[in-house]
Amino acid sequence: MTGPVPPAGAPAPALSVRGLSVRFRMHGGTHVAAVTDARFDLAAGECLALVGESGCGKSVLASALLGLLPENAETAGAALLGDGTDLLTADERTLARTVRGRRVGLVPQSPAAHLTPVRTVRSQLEETLRELAGVRRPDLRKAAAAAAERASFPLGHLDRYPHELSGGLAQRAATALALIGDAPLLLADEPTTGLDRELVDRTVDELRRHVGDDRALLLITHDLAAAERIADRVAVMYASRVVEIAAADDFFGDAGPRHPYARGLLNALPEREFTPIPGMPPELSALPGGCAFAARCDRADAACGTVPALTGGVPLSTGAGGASTGAVPVSAGAGVACHHPVTAALEAPRA
Amino acid sequence: MLELRSLTAGYDRRDPVVRDVSLTVAPGESVGLLGPSGCGKSTLARVAALLHRPDRGQVVVDGEPVHGWRHRAPRDRRTAFGVVFQQPRLSADPRLSLAQIVAEPLRATGRAADVPERVPELARTVGLGADLLGRRPHEVSDGQLQRACLARALVLRPRWLICDEMTAMLDASTTAALVAVVEEYRAASGAGLLAVGHDRVLLERWCERTVEWRELTGATGATGGSAAHPAAE
Amino acid sequence: MADTEATTGPGTAADPVTRWRPVAGRSLAGARKASRSTRAWRVGSSAAIVTAVVLAVLIVPPLVALDEQAVHLADKLLPPSAAHPFGTDDVGRDLLVRCVYGLRVSLLVGVVAAVVATVIGTAVGALAASAGGWVDRVVMRLVDVFSSVPHLLLGIFIVAMFRPGVWPVVISVALTHWLSTARIVRAEVLSLRSRPYVDAAISGGASRWRVTVRHLLPGVLPQAGLAAVLMVPHAIWHESALSFLGLGLPTHQASLGTLVQGARSSLLAGDWWPTLFPGLFIIVPTLAIAGLAGAWRDRINPRRRSELML
Amino acid sequence: MTRSLPWGPMARLVGRRAAFAVPVLLAVTFGVFAVAEASPFDPVKAYAGTAGLTASQENLDQLRANLGVDKPLVSRWWDWLTAALHGDLGDSSTLRQPVADAIGERIGWSVLLATTAFVLAILVGSALGVLAARRPGGWLDRCVTSLAYTLEAAPPFWLGLLAVWLFALHLGVLPAGGLTDTSSVAVTAGQVSRHLVLPAAVLAVSQLPWFVLYVRQGVGDALGDDPVRGARARGLAERTVLLKHAFRSGMLPVLTLVGSRVPELITGALLVETVFSWPGIAAATVQAATSVDFPLLAALTALATVAVLLGNLLADLLYGLADPRVGFDG
Amino acid sequence: SSPDGNKGGSATSAVVGIAYEPETLSPLLGYGKDGNSKIFDGLLTHDADMKLKPALAAKLPKVGDGGTTYTYELRKGVKFSDGKPFTAKDVVFTYETILDKKTNNASKTELDAVKSVEAKGDDTVVFHLKYPYAPFAERTVLPIAPEHVAGEQDVNSGAFTTKPIGTGPYELVKWSKGEKLVFKANPDYWGGAPKIKNFTMAIVKDDDLRATRLRTGDLDGAILPPNLAGTFKSDADKKTYAAKTFDYRVVTLPTGNKVAGDTAVRRALDVGVDRKTMVDSILEGAGKEAYGPVPTDSPWFTKGTERKFDVTRAKQILDDAGWKPGKGGVREKDGVQAKFPLWYLSGDKLRQDHALAYASDAKKLGIKVEVQSGTWEVIEPRMPKDAVLAGGGSPADPDFDQYTLLKSSLAGDGFNNMAHYDNPKVDKALEEARRSGDHAKRQAAYDTVQRELVKNPGYTFLTHIDHLYVVDKSYGDLTTQVEPHDHGLASGPWWNVEDWQPKK
Ligand SMILES: Nc1ncnc2c1ncn2[C@@H]1O[C@H](COP(=O)(O)OP(=O)(O)OP(=O)(O)O)[C@@H](O)[C@H]1O
Ligand SMILES: Nc1ncnc2c1ncn2[C@@H]1O[C@H](COP(=O)(O)OP(=O)(O)OP(=O)(O)O)[C@@H](O)[C@H]1O
Ligand SMILES: [Mg+2]
Ligand SMILES: [Mg+2]
């Protein structure tokens, strides 16, 4: 199920995120730290699943990569595309003309809200085809049908307005739109909400197929089954930080995640224990000084008063190891940000 | 008893989405409704919550057939249903803060006095911090917004809960937490639940009974071929 | 372990090493979004102008007790000077005094008419749209009836029925100008009415009235507010149009509209001051009001709120 | 397979409006009769003009009888109405002409002027509004907005003078007034179109501010909304985002304006025609009103009503088409 | 600046801008009743000095039967522009139709004296009057309509009202309402074909625009208010003509008002207003001080009735009459404050300025004049009690003005005698002057009237205003008539456009 892993020393990754941070300025001078110091690489042909508790900053991370943050946001760090374009500092013109849709595609969360309400799905599809794929007028209808087909969007609903779509239909429409640009990097923010299992599988398979060998996919999802189905690696976010990056096989396999939070997340699945992680996530406007998970963690001790760095420790899989990226040894392949990570063999979760 | 009897509903009289569907939820019972995407589950949920007038058929609440929908339904009828909508972004007034969104039903029904007590209590239950409560919908994540929407649905202590894909945009832990919140409430109040979703595993784990969409059609509500639904391309 | 990492990346969000870049500045290609300080400055100056205008209108004329109609034929059309900072008009009246008096009258006409028209228009439009059905149809046809008689005609009739003066003008402008507001508000409400959050409100037990007031009206306030602001200069326009037809305020009584209107000939003869100063007196307060309204709109706009800090 | 226009609902809307038009017309014409009657204007004095200043009372009384204005209001209205239904609109006392002739001769020019101006105002207004909304707070935005408010305060007779002064006198590029060159008799398309430029532009400019500011506001709001974010994320060109997404959503209030600005347009036309010696019918309206020229006034308001009703119908049809969430109710 | 492409400046055409548009072109409804209608001719017409001369009549009328019959011998061979001959029948038709009750002609009062009109053969017409009416011949300048055309139609709304046919020097080519009237020369005009072949009157109601259009060269001539005419002073191509007029501006001092009706107040105001400054500033010099309806340079003017501006004397008069200074500088007498309202027609700048200047002058005397404006509808009911800034003036005969202005029996009759002036001596003199055919007697009677007005003014006459016209110089030196208050279509330098001899 795992895709091909990029060989070490391969050309620059499709996306390389370095210390990306986003915060929102709020009233009274406070800040909401939505993303803090994210660092990871995404190679061509690879699919990275980004999971984490609701509100931990996944969508904000995606928005930051597309330069679509609201105006009260501030960013830091860098997010480099394969050719060195820094998505965080590129000017709007570059982003609009060459990046969005063309080099970085997005399946937005809340697709219904992201469709223009006064135009039919068909017209929005055709327009995108015309602009991004250069399809000429006579071929538009067929191309639109084909694009809809890819995302399992029923052709009979093409002439509907967004408000006339069910949640799942809107989701599929959004996916269809995002696939048109054939972007080398695709950000899919919850592309399967509102879909039934069969459609989820079809959709993620299509995404995987789309990625193939030369594109990369950042799959933001709550649907761990979907992540398991197509992801090569899994990144776990908690309270604005990436707390673990692991190969999917390890994460979902016997070894299991190493961060206590990630383990809790898996355990909460209905097919497993279906119990929430105790306690509540911290408010991003007032993050605790040390490890943000400490308050909910049964392993916490005094050491957790400092923020743990994302360290590789022992490479857990064949994933593109830290060695290849030199200066920032742990950011790319796998790692966990925990003072007391779980060792694999000990506590592998059983469904 | 919430009975949906041979309901036909949709957005175009000539081509209804929901055809001849029947379903019953007993008080205190939790029913999960499974169905493919786009088959009409949300529509049915809206009919059941008295928000959408069916073309044919009857909704019977506690033995009394419903005659008015939306504003025409008597207020206590309407508020007997707590609804969590599928798309939190669209179902939250963008001008109100989360706290106001939760408090709104109390205010609308003249129970503003309860606000200072109920809202923080519910916020705690669904896991919304004070900081988030002061923000407006576009300043929070979808999941956080959905928590507020659940709190809004519960604030009037409804006798029937209708959760339309409540957890679709939630992570596993939050899903588990919110399901726990609903179950706790049901245990305390004896409310009936109609949970709409796609996730068979989840619904089977959550609900006492799950039904498939295609089982609902036909007068008996047991058998009968489903009308060709859009997902069937 | 963490300490070793501190040099390669920021530790916490508050770490001084983190170099934050605002995104506001690059929200659009080349567009320099006004920085917060210029914005605040703009709002501040608008507020200052409006305050000054209100003070001038309320305090100056009674205090100074100048005779705005005193004619000094010998001093006609004097350019601005120390004695007459704004110069004099073609029968030798001091333009500064007349501008201040005119401001008083015109602002009264403009603001009262705008407020009345907006309130009526918003109420009618919202009522029609949220009631829907035949109420909507009948009310909107009544609106049609009203709008069918050209505004100026209705204005002429109304003004003619009274003695010429400020109030007939106010009434005639207010009564003829709520119609577009009503239609705009109705259309917006119709569009908002079908939003899912209205469903949520209904399910929460909100009455029709409450849905309208709490969820629909706030959504149309920007539209109605814009109509109101636009109405201020428009009312001044109307007042001078009525004068043009010989039916407005007594033409010797200073109002900004009539001042500008009366100065046309002087302008052709090359005397600019009788036009310029009253013109500025119309435009500057209007822009100031518009500026304040814009700031207010930004405040109530759910999306811009986080960005604007007053 | 493309979604065809919703002819059924549209036809029903048109039908309903047509049915409503009858009572509306009755109400408006009667209203005008009543208001004119209640006004202090005296048709006889107006008819007599300056001659009336020295005319004897007896002469005036005779005139009153001749003009038929001594009858009670209701019967006058009824007479007018029944005659009008038989195609006789009566004689205008101010124009000393049958109303049908008077209107027939001049209405074309008014319609030409008003529609040109309106179309111009909508197009230019929308364009400026979109440009201003693109960069809120930018210099273009500030210029356009200030200009719009300024123009809103400038009545057509002012703008008219300024326009003539600039274009006819200083630049000498456009004629200053009239339908054709002042000394020529023939009405040629070329001449009319040259003479149309200034009055139409002035009328358009006087209508511009609402369109500019509403488009600006609508587009500005839409630009901050999720759908536009979605369109941007898809990588659509800025032009497309602006026109096909932000403007498509933001122009909805403007469509309403199309209907509700018709009365203002008529008001504007009424002044512009006077200022530019344009031989249309609107200029006669004021005279008809102050002279209480009932037949002419009633016919003109009926015309205005039809224009307003059509404008509103058009607006509602467009709105229904442009915003599928609203439909064709009303 | 000399505009290129001056369309009208060519030798044979002229375009003039006027402010008023006639409602009708039918003489039967009042068009051209004071003569000079371009399309039509009257039996008589005025020359430059406003003296009567024959037009359609071959000579001036013979007056008989003690001033009650007027016999006109008609000019022979005159044709209407449609080729049909003009006969006595047309004259009878015209007058009878005007006097017909069914005809909506508001000025038929002017023909009140007429009992009947009789055609004697084809070329003699006899008017029988009800009473001797000395100025009757002045009334026969009114245009003659063709019976064969106008008689076939509804007189009030027929096509003739907009498409007239007459005997005059010009034929109407086109009347584009609200825009212009286009005339072409009548080649068969009995007085000889005019040199100006095409004559256009552009209707430009707005003064400022008219001035601008004149400047652009679009117009060859235009009537302008003093301040705008002034802007052409330095223009080498334009000449300004100031037509002398009988057009006065007057403040009515109604007898019904305790203050304005007081003779002392009236007299004080009469000498205490600064007419000279009004002429200089408001009229920019284009006018004269007025002391009565008759302008100071008219032969009918009674020398010595000029009032010298004298504030001291005015105050003296008031003091003597018991008007004592009260609070706020306003005089009082018997508990009555010396104040009264003064109305002017709203929108009329000239009257407004006169009213304001009057009020300012009155204030210096201790009389508070409250200036107010309104339409005639508003003003009319107030005329018996409130002062009004009125205007009027008709050069043809002193009777036309003075009788309606001063005759006590006409007080409150419409706009006649607005001040409710009541002076038996004046009444008697007016009646005498009206009935007498003898010039000297009439002169004496009007002298009496003017002297009485000094003793008891009733009105404060302020100015006689010149009508200013600016015309392109290429038409050579033009003349103007003495003009009445009403600006007829054909007043101004183009009163005799048919006789213009353009230079080029
Ligand atoms: N405009 C904003 N202003 C302030 N805070 C914001 C804003 N947008 C998002 N946030 C905050 O940033 C955090 C991250 O939000 P984000 O939408 O990325 O969450 P998420 O991980 O995508 O959650 P979900 O799974 O629910 O979509 C949330 O806590 C949210 O409250
Ligand atoms: N307002 C509307 N107007 C017209 N058609 C609509 C409208 N809302 C929904 N539909 C259509 O009705 C059908 C059923 O929609 P509904 O939202 O009930 O589906 P659903 O079962 O909830 O699907 P999902 O699981 O994707 O949310 C769909 O085909 C949808 O396109
Ligand atoms: Mg998200
Ligand atoms: Mg659904």
Characterization of this structure:
The complex is a heteropentamer of chains A (351), B (233), C (310), D (330) and E (504). With 351 residues, chain A is an alpha/beta fold. Helix content of chain A is 28%, strand content 19%. In chain A, the strands form 2 sheets. In chain A, strands 5-6-7-3-8-9-10 form a 7-stranded mixed β-sheet, sandwiched between helices. In chain A, helix 4 runs parallel beside helix 6 (167-180), helix 5 (137-150) packs across helix 6 (167-180) and helix 7 (197-211) packs parallel to helix 8. Chain A starts with 14 loop residues before the first strand and ends in a 15-residue tail after the last strand. Residues 1-9, 313-332 and 345-351 of chain A have low confidence and may be disordered. Chain B is globular, with a radius of gyration of 17 Å. Chain C has helices at residues 2-5, 36-58, 60-64, 95-131, 133-148, 151-161, 166-193, 196-203, 208-244, 256-262, 264-268, 273-300, and one strand at residues 21-22. The longest helix of chain C is centred in the middle third of the chain and has 37 residues, at 95-131. The model of chain C is unreliable at 1-16, 25-33 and 305-310 (pLDDT under 50). With 504 residues, chain E is of the alpha+beta class. In chain E, the strands form 5 sheets. A 7-stranded mixed β-sheet of chain E has the order 8-9-10-1-11-22-12. In chain E, strands 14-21-13-20-18-19 form a 6-stranded mixed β-sheet. In chain E, a hairpin with a 5-residue loop joins strand 2 and strand 3. The two termini of chain E are 19 Å apart. At the C-D interface, helix 5, helix 6, helix 7, helix 9 and helix 10 of C face helix 1, helix 7, helix 8, helix 9 and helix 12 of D. Residues 58-59, 109, 189 of chain A line the site of one magnesium ion (MG).
SSE layout and pairing:
The complex is a heteropentamer of chains A (351), B (233), C (310), D (330) and E (504).
Chain B: E1 2-9, E2 18-25, E3 30-34, H1 41-48, E4 56-61, E5 64-65, H2 75-78, E6 81-84, H3 98-108, H4 115-126, H5 130-133, H6 142-154, E7 160-164, H7 172-189, E8 192-197, H8 200-206, E9 209-212, H9 213-216
Parallel strand pairs in B: 3-8, 3-9, 6-7, 7-8
Antiparallel strand pairs in B: 1-2, 1-4, 4-5
Helix pairs in contact in B: 3-4, 3-6, 4-6
Chain C: H1 2-5, E1 21-22, H2 36-58, H3 60-64, H4 95-131, H5 133-148, H6 151-161, H7 166-193, H8 196-203, H9 208-244, H10 256-262, H11 264-268, H12 273-300
Helix pairs in contact in C: 2-4, 2-12, 4-5, 4-7, 4-9, 4-12, 5-7, 6-7, 7-9, 8-9, 9-10, 9-12, 10-12
Chain D: H1 7-38, H2 43-48, H3 51-54, H4 57-67, H5 73-85, E1 91-92, E2 97-98, H6 99-134, H7 139-153, H8 156-170, H9 189-223, H10 226-233, H11 238-250, H12 252-260, H13 262-275, H14 282-290, H15 294-322
Antiparallel strand pairs in D: 1-2
Helix pairs in contact in D: 1-15, 6-7, 6-9, 6-13, 7-9, 8-9, 8-13, 9-11, 9-12, 9-13, 10-11, 12-15, 13-14, 14-15
The structure holds adenosine-5'-triphosphate (2 copies) and magnesium ion (2 copies).
Protein name (chain B): ATP-binding cassette domain-containing protein
GO molecular function, one term (chain B): ATP binding
GO biological process, one term (chain B): transmembrane transport
